[in-house]
Amino acid sequence: MRLVLAERSLNLTNHSWAGGSGNLSLEGPLVAWAAGGLGRTGHSAVAVCLGIILVLGCLNNLLVLLIFLKFESIRTPINLILLNISLSDLLVCIFGTPFSLAASLRGRWLLGEAGCKWYGFANALFGIVSLISLSILSYERYVTVLRRRMKVNVSSYQKSCLFIAGSWFYSLFWTLPPLFGWSSYGPEGPGTTCSVEWHSRSPNNISYIICLFIFCLILPLLTMIYCYGKIVRAIKMQVSRFNMTTVQKREHHILFMVVSMVTCYLLCWMPYGIVSLIATFGKPGIITPTVSIVPSVLAKTSTFVNPVLCVLLNKQFYRCFITLVKCGPFPQRTENILNSKERQNFEIAGQITEIPLSQTPADERQIKNNTQYSSKNQKTLVVHYKV
């Protein structure tokens, strides 16, 4: 008698789930994925992590947007790319993370098959925009430092806008095909998130995953490594030729920036890419729901890590952030420097390395002394200012 009642209860539960999911049936893919769930403790742990990511991601990216709105002087061409990164991360927090958070709290996907496709598409779209923008940012810094593009004018803003528009079109180019037959979006992990169907072994799906991995993950990473590597190498060459304390300090700052950007990129996105490739090409069932959910959560942490790096590693943002927190007036000297777009460049033997302006009188005296030393030895030292 108890077995019969238990079986009826299970049937009623399954029937209620199918009816509440709209587009799902008992044979639907989401029901099958839910069978391999994490358990109540696992779902609760994921929900806590996603809740923290949601709060920090929204606050950090809204803070970056607020700084852009409040301080007109930091709206430089290269900072527009930072704004694009924050905007894409904020859109992930708005249109993606809340749905996976709700699903983790309930232990199952709540929006049906159509909602699953939308979630997979939206997260892929905004995530790839952020990745491509990070590589564009590294290229812009490379051009600024090594290619003598020092003057900021209307064409510089137009170029940045073209780069930003290009990042969105590029992302759409790779995220729209699953909606029209080249691969597809479906549930992943324990069934509380959706993405590209990594487990499908069809040639159609495998070809898309290979292209996605190469052009949307590896290519941006290689671009960042190449551009930042060139920047660090150029600065090391300048320091070895000209003993200058300020330059050495800036070298350490830029090296820290490079290591931080590349490391965070690797930690946030490479585990997800590697696990996805194993799910596609490895032994069926080798990636369990517990294993698959960890890199998915790590990828979402990029939504609050990127704005933190943006504020801490960018002196313009950092000064404006401190001013905003203290609710004080913007420093007049800093505002004049930012508005005049002055830069400090160190040029020897036809090579240029950009060095941010030091704000201490001792550093300024060091620059002046080195300028006089350079003129005595018939070398050219061009000093501009950059914040």
Short description:
This protein is mainly alpha-helical. The protein has 2 domains: 29-326, Rhodopsin 7-helix transmembrane proteins (Rhopdopsin 7-helix transmembrane proteins, Up-down Bundle), CATH 1.20.1070; 332-376, no CATH class.
What key attributes describe this structure?
387 residues, mainly alpha, Rhopdopsin 7-helix transmembrane proteins, 2 domains, two-stranded antiparallel ribbon, 4 strands, disordered C terminus, membrane, retinal protein
Q: What would you say this structure looks like, in words?
A:
- The chain is mainly alpha-helical and 387 residues long.
- The chain folds into two domains: 29-326, Rhodopsin 7-helix transmembrane proteins (Rhopdopsin 7-helix transmembrane proteins); 332-376, no CATH class.
- It has helices at 2-20, 29-34, 40-70, 77-95, 97-106, 112-146, 154-175, 203-241, 245-281, 289-312, 315-326, 332-340, 361-376, and strands at 185-188, 193-196, 345-348, 351-354.
- The strands form two sheets. It has a two-stranded antiparallel ribbon. The chain has a two-stranded antiparallel sheet with strand order 3-4.
- The chain is globular and about 55 Å long.
- Mean pLDDT is 76; it is low at 1-29, 31-35, 332-364 and 370-387.
Topology at a glance:
Layout: H1 2-20, H2 29-34, H3 40-70, H4 77-95, H5 97-106, H6 112-146, H7 154-175, E1 185-188, E2 193-196, H8 203-241, H9 245-281, H10 289-312, H11 315-326, H12 332-340, E3 345-348, E4 351-354, H13 361-376
Antiparallel strand pairs: 1-2, 3-4
Helix pairs in contact: 3-4, 3-5, 3-10, 4-6, 4-7, 4-10, 6-7, 6-8, 8-9, 9-10
Pfam families: 7tm_1 (PF00001)
InterPro entries: GPCR_opsins, GPCR_Rhodpsn, GPCR_Rhodpsn_7TM, Opsin, Peropsin
Transmembrane segments: 45-69, 81-101, 121-139, 160-180, 206-228, 254-281, 293-313
